[in-house]
Amino acid sequence: MSKLGNLGARLHRGEISYDFIGHRKLWYSISILITITAIVGLAVRGLNMGIDFQGGAVFTTEKTSVSVSQAEEYAKNASGHDAVVQKLGNGTLRIQIAGMDTQQSDEIKSELAKDFKVDSESIAADLVGPSWGDQIANKAWQGLAIFMVLVVIYLAIAFEWRMAIAALVALIHDITITVGIYALVGFEVTPGTVIGLLTILGYSLYDTVVVFDSLKEQTKDLTKQTRFTYSEIANRSINGTLVRSINTTVVALLPVAGLLFIGGGFLGAGTLNDISLSLFVGLAAGAYSSIFIATPLVADLKEREPQIKALRKRVLAKRAQAASDEDHPVARRLDDDSEDAAPAVVGPRDQGAPRSRRRPSGKRR
Asked: Which of 186, 223, 310, 349 gives the lowest tally of CB atoms within 10 Å of its CB?
């Protein structure tokens, strides 16, 4: 742990660094590949929309010893459709069947009561209309659009428009990957999923703004010096906040991983998967995009400015001159000696008049 802390301190002070900006084409390629995979998965498999979005019936049984797989078979035989069955913490079962109306719901409820060998009144049935799910989806899209617009406006005012564009690209990158993972895994999309998606946007933006704030501080009066280019300052900003980003991401991922893998996977609490998967994938994607996408994209946009281009030329020219001086040390030393040498003395030296030695009495010897 002490070595890790020492490594973080050296990264923050700029004593060591990794060239994130120099390898930005590699990061872009990886992100494009992942994004294309997510889009293909979304187009081919589609999202497994929950009953809240497509409508249907929800049946809740009393505490029972019937397994989830057996309940799924009962529900499929009774309705003729695939059902989503979740075992709740108190031992009851929650059975969701999409596309059911009131009459079908009553018939299925009676069939399930016979299969479970219980009274039909002990099974609670709730109908969810598709219009309610449409309203949720529309409100979620509206909230997302408003959020994006406000983010761009704020970042353009607080920082600059290039950083606003880079942050927006990073947010779209995170949303696309998260939604694509949902399509590939086949997890059900519920209102909890929407909440998780909106939550990760704030986290991703926070991690990006941390790097941008460091970059803004280090690039003040940048064109007045000739030691570093803008890309090199951007790389120092990433390295300076890298340990902080890793620490906050790991701390945030640990409890979410507990909900997803232990609660949803090991303990079988399927309701936790709705929000935990979106949080887990989104947090990881947000940390990645703030380091490998947002800041390198800002550097690419800034390097197109005439002032930054001129700065880069001056920096490279100065380094080329320094390298040339190192290759010819004798000539450089002669030049230094000729410049630093004291001016020669021209003409006779004034040594002063000779002193005559006299006796105390004032007579000469």
From this structure: 349
Q: Specify the 3-state DSSP secondary structure of 92.
A: coil
Question: What is the pLDDT tens value at each position of the chain, 365 positions in all?
Answer: 555 556 656 665 656 678 899 899 999 999 999 999 999 988 888 887 777 777 788 888 888 888 888 888 888 888 887 787 877 766 788 888 877 766 788 888 888 888 888 888 888 887 776 666 677 778 878 888 888 888 889 999 989 899 999 999 999 999 899 888 888 887 778 777 888 888 888 888 888 888 899 888 888 888 888 888 999 999 988 888 888 888 888 888 888 888 777 765 555 555 667 778 888 888 888 889 989 999 999 999 999 999 999 989 998 888 888 887 776 655 455 444 444 444 434 444 444 444 444 545 444 44
Angle at 160 between CA 154 and CA 162, to 5 degrees: 110
The sheet carrying 56-60 orders its strands as: 84-87, 93-98, 56-60, 124-128
The whole-angstrom separation of Cα 314 and Cα 255 is 49
Residue span(s) of the chain under CATH 3.30.70.3400 come to 56-128
Q: What is the model's pTM?
A: 0.73
| Closest C-alpha among 41, 101, 52, 107 to residue 78 | 107
2-49+132-312 is a CATH 1.20.1640.10 domain: yes
Domain with CATH 1.20.1640.10 in the chain: 2-49+132-312
Longest CA–CA separation in the chain, Å: 150
